[in-house]
Amino acid sequence: MQYKSTTNLDYWRLNVDKDGRQTWVYLASEEERANWPQTPYDRYWLGIYNEAPELPSPCTPLDSARNGFEFYRHLQTPSGHWAGEYGGPMFLLPGFVIVNYVTGTPWLKGQREEIIRYIKNRAHPDDGGWGIHIESDSTVFGTALNYVSLRLLGVDAEDPVCIRARATLHRLGGATGIPSWGKFWLSILNVYDWEGNNPIPPELWLLPYWMPVHPGRMWIHTRMVYLPMGYLYGIRFRAKETELIHQLRQELYVTPYEEIYWPAQRNNVCPVDVYCPHTKIFDMLNVLLSIYEKIPNGWLRKLALDQSLKHIRAEDKNTKYCDLAPVNKAMNKLVIWIVDGPDSESFKQHCYRDQDSFWLGAEGIMCNGTNGSQLWDTAFMVQALVESGLAEEKSFKPHMVRALEYIDASQFKEDCEDRWALSYREISKGGWGFSNRDQSYPVSDCCAEAMKSTLLLQNKLTSMPKLISDERLFDTINVLFSMTNPDGGFCSYERRRGSYLLEWLNPAEVFGNIMIEYCYPECTTAVLLGLTTFRKHFPDHQSEEINDLIKRAAQYIKNSQLPDGSWYGSWAICFTYATWFGIESLSSIGESYENSDNVKRACDFLVSKQMKDGGWGEKYKSCELHTYVHHDTSQVVMTSWAVMSLMAAQYPDESVIRAGIKVIMSRQQPNGEWLQEGIEGVFNHNCMISYPNYKFAFTIWALGRYARLYGNPKLA
Ligand code: LAN
Description:
Blueprint lengths: L11 E5 L5 E5 L3 H6 L4 H7 L14 H12 L20 H11 L7 H11 L18 H13 L7 H12 L8 H9 L31 H15 L8 H9 L28 H15 L3 H21 L7 H15 L4 H10 L3 E4 L2 E4 L6 H15 L8 H14 L8 H5 L20 H17 L9 H12 L39 H17 L5 H17 L15 H14 L8 H12 L12 H5 L10 H13 L5 H14 L13 E3 L3 E3 L4 H17 L6
Antiparallel strand pairs: 1-2, 3-4, 5-6
Helix pairs in contact: 3-27, 4-6, 4-13, 6-7, 9-12, 9-13, 12-13, 13-14, 15-16, 15-18, 15-27, 16-18, 18-19, 18-20, 20-21, 20-22, 22-23, 22-25, 25-26, 25-27, 26-27
The site of lanosterol (LAN) has 20 residues, from helix 9, helix 18 and helix 20.
């Protein structure tokens, strides 16, 4: 970190409400600060927490796990969840910066400075550009959007950071070769011509659902992003020209702006940016759509825009303006500003909810990938503590009660209104999402992890309050049933609705597999384990259907195992993550290293990747390349997944596992914490995302499991 804060870090607080809404506020007055002192979790995430005491040096894995939680428990927020940074992608914040510039939305105190600081701190050390995510090489997508953001936030074109970034952008050919999502944002800002974009027809929303290209059949994120995109493309919205916009037009390109021939830019994407090239069919389709755009069809476009607006309004209402994720959030906000105006209640709601996406970390303010990872992180921590037995310890139990309170508060209590006609959504009542209740979208594995955690807390631990009724868990089962697929697998948010052929029309050159839902071994495992836990407690509830689902999910897991014994991970890095899930699935149906060829092959795969020091470490490149790439050093998070897998498999050679456990113990700091290592998560094969709480949940879980299985021997 090169740039230190110019706002006073002691003035910032993480504001957390009982629904898990988390926003950073800057307290300007002494009086406010005196009434609202900083907490350990504020200071930890700001990177200034150094008062955690040194703990007795741990000799056994359980001591080490206990020290870990002794540190981590102070980071639990009053709502009962663990908060955390969820940055990584470098294309999210620019959306907000552009929209705030266009709509004249003021920044709250301290935000502008801290955003500038973040972007500057994240410039690539080698060339001063930015990539698609914090660990990637510089790309046009990252560099152009973050350069524009700095300029819109008031940084001078001759600032050394801008000079360096501009040189990198020009070396990459300038912003003409930005990928389609970048073309879109720059066109909104009026520094790229709409003629340089492939058509994004809002008319798709008028098609009948039976048509294979209906947006309702697409992956939920794709349809919710292309919805406001189609609207803004449909009206060719452009920001009012300003002096700054004129300057940017000259700064972003290697030729004079006026001389750029825009139609030739539609498929011009810089090779370093391309992850998923257009197909021939998609290019042909764009030729046809471009002809369609030339035909005047005012009434049909108007109908399509009206229909899109209805869906946009439904999305805002269902999510209390949080929206599915920050990408469509920023776009919806702009649409609402255009349609309802700056003084409307709806626009004000949007501005209020912007705050949920911003996160102040040690390097400055970033945009989180969602409005937090509250439920997800909390559910893993619960499982780690329960399996290790630490949950029963007197000083730790209250933290489990609070975690249960959060799980209780974050369950969805109702379905959204007119859910199919307005949003193409399934039921949500009884489900859980990744973050909090307001966001409203159930995710298969979040439902399952939360249900499992609830059962562990309420039915396994002693003297816990029963906050969640059996009926509410039966509702969860209904939600899971609404997500089943013919092959037994589970997708992320919904069952798969579209054909695999839709992937041929993937317009976003930077992401793979975004057009439809896919089944994932991670999601399927979570559901499988959730259901087996549920079945233990409610053996008579829908037993036939549940047994059948379990059987089919297990079959999916076997079918998705790769020839080398591993599974490809889509939501964290990578083969290590998914192989952990695969093995947990098979272990839950009684398979082990000794009795199952699938489990044996998976273990052999993992063991073949163990590093010299006894740990495991996989680099994000695995996700991109679909082959295992070693990290330079072992990583505690991957080491934890690997040893948990081997323990679940009853791997016969304990020394292999012990070596991994020793690595985890050796990386623990005297105060019980583990330090941040490489980035942990991924989406759409090419973009990484941080899960900084993983270094606590999975280490403690792995140590706890080892202690339970091997009698907690002295290892240090
Ligand atoms: C997430 C975060 C959580 C993640 C898990 C629960 C871990 C996973 O098991 C299922 C999928 C899910 C819910 C998921 C889906 C895609 C998200 C929402 C993200 C990776 C966080 C950010 C990402 C979102 C799509 C970012 C915006 C980019 C687009 C291509 C629209």
